[in-house]
Amino acid sequence: MNQTMFDKIWNQHVIEGQPGEPQLIYVDLHLLHEVTSPQAFEGLREAGRKVRRTDKTFATMDHNVPTEDIFNVKDAISRKQIETLGQNAKEFGVRLAGMGDERQGIIHVIGPQLGLTQPGMVIVCGDSHTATHGAFGSIAFGIGTSEVEHVLATQTIWQTKPKTMGIHVHGKMPAGVYAKDIIMGIIAREGVAFGTGYGAEFYGDTIEAMSMEERMTLCNMAIEGGAKMGSVRPDQTTFDYVAGREYAPKDMAKAIAYWQQFYTDSEDAFDRIIDFDVSELAPFVSWGTNPGMAVPIDQPFPAIKNADDQKAYDYVGLQPGETADQIPIQYVFFGSCTNGRLSDLKIAANILKGHHIADGVTALVVPGSRTIKHEAEKLGIDQIFKAAGCDWREPGCSACLGMNPDQVPAGMHCASTSNRNFEGRQGAGSKTHLASPAMVAAAAIHGHFIDIRKEAI
Amino acid sequence: MEPITVINGTSVPLMKDNIDTDQLIPKQFLKNILKVGYGQHLFYDWRYQENGQPNPDFILNRPDRQGASILVVGDNFGCGSSREHAVWALKDYGFKVVIAGGYSDIFYMNSTKNGFLAIILPKEQRDILAAAPADAVITVDLPNQVVEYDGYRFEFDIDPLWKHKFVNGLDDIAITMGYEDEIEAYEARMPSFN
Predict the structure, then answer these.
(1) Which of A216, A251, A275 is the C-terminal boundary of a domain?
(2) Extended beta strands in B11-162, E state
(3) Where is the Aconitase A/isopropylmalate dehydratase small subunit swivel domain (chain B) (predicted)?
């Protein structure tokens, strides 16, 4: 019988249980951060249990970390979570990229960057954007804190195998259109729950032409369509990215041969297939309060179809029939595990170069990791952002979810390269508009979104 | 974990789709290192006004809806962030069961780990439950997999393994540790690339 990559990796990792039932799956890489791990470590301590495989576990602080002065954590409980992870890592022998460490950053950015993330793996983390790591051809998904404790203690997890969905993405990406627009376009068309119960694999000529960073953006937001896991078949682009990194395999030839056994046999192995042609795709902007409430830049906001739409319009203070260029942008956020990588910062900087952000706009640039920050500084990218009037910060999750002091003030419209536009996501009363780094950079300059395909920056 | 068998309780209807975990428990209340105390912040942004006073229009604040243990909601409940705090907040508030059209996969797994029953019923049946008066008692009978109210009888599905754990209040980690030999054997088979 034909199998998908997902089926093959899954089956390789089953320790106990039958298909259709919860199965005990082995975990190759467990990533930790300070918000969803303290109760898990406390549970281990209470039960007198150890971390079973410290060599398959890696931790960092990202959600709470201040981006101005990382060591000045003013919020007492943020500080406590950060300190608690440091103590837990030490007590249980877990590897940690701690506060100020060169390797510190958003957990989904540093996993790939350190070579921890590899094809063929099962990867979990107490964070829904773990789907990001699927870009390497792994099964990667977010888990809750009880599951974090379970994985720490046993290096395994009970899961019922999801169905598989193939997302066929094809066509040449038009200028001004990016991976972010593809995933936003898919979710806008299919809804925020189309992937629930599925593990998704993106494939097609568009995907094959993508860099690893673009593939990560795509898989990162699979969860916003309900798919707990998004993945891409590993190819030479993947192998070249992994090779030579700190935790990458030493014997790459052997590793590649192993990884290549997991390829999807043929399309008919998927339980469901979605087709998405990008050749006519336009840049997307979200108008509402979930990532599916988004339109192409050249289309008006939709009519109100139900109570949820009404509630969303009431919250954001926009009207059906208006267009994205009418949103008054007062705040701009560059960063997050979706679009906080070096290529994203380069794209934004290219647009900002020689320009200044509009009067009354506050713009924050938060690199996904300290390594990215330093690489960007070496290239002079920080200078471009600063000259344009942006605030260049230390790495972390920052204003994507505002657990640190980086919050969008109530009532303000924020053009954001992040992944969620839920009510209050970036701060109580904040209004988030998701878009690609290029679109957000152009919005920063103009104080409103523009169609970057048509208008001069 | 406390076993769950038959739950008799009053209900709160909140028939909105896509209720995300940011609404169930906003991020400012994740800053804790305990598993308890989140109930007071459940649905915070809907439940409280800007001045911190309870919003009298929100159903959870109505006097006749106090003490409810059954939450009846729309589709795709618990989408968004993986925060288990969402389940802890529902439980800590006093809810014992939620009845939805469907759940995000992560929320559902989190519910199974915390002895919080998440049931799926079709919209026609939930509409009947959502119309129940505030003082009406709804019965959720897990062993028999049925929800009963006012002469109605709605059967629901649940995976036998999850049901077994709920009914017996079993701890997952202890169960898994029974497979130590199998886990070790698996590890011995794993390839090394170094």
Answers:
(1) A275
(2) 11-14, 70-73, 97-100, 117-120, 138-141, 146-149, 152-155
(3) 2-123
Question: Looking at the partner chain, which of B80, B173, B194 has a beta carbon nearest the beta carbon of A251?
Answer: B194
* Nearest-angstrom CA–CA distance, B14 and A69: 42
pLDDT band of B36, cuts 50, 70, 90? confident
Domain with A408 in it:
285-446
* A309 vs A38: CA distance, rounded Å: 37
Q: Are A39 and B34 an interchain contact pair (Cβ–Cβ within 8 Å)?
A: yes
CATH number of the domain where residue A328 is located: 3.30.499.10
- B166 min Cα distance to partner chain A (Å): 14
Instruction: Provide the ipTM.
Output: 0.92
Whether A457 shows a pLDDT value over 80: the answer reads no
* Per-residue pLDDT tens digits for A182-220: 999 999 999 999 999 999 999 999 999 999 999 999 999
Whether the CB of A84 is below 8 Å from some CB of chain B: the reply is yes
Element (H, E) at A367: none
Nearest to A154 by CA among A14, A24, A18, A20: A24
Of A275, A299, A327, the last residue of a domain is A275
pLDDT, tens digit, 9 for 90 and up, residues A364-380: 999 999 999 999 999 99
CATH architecture of the domain covering B6-169: Alpha-Beta Barrel (3.20)
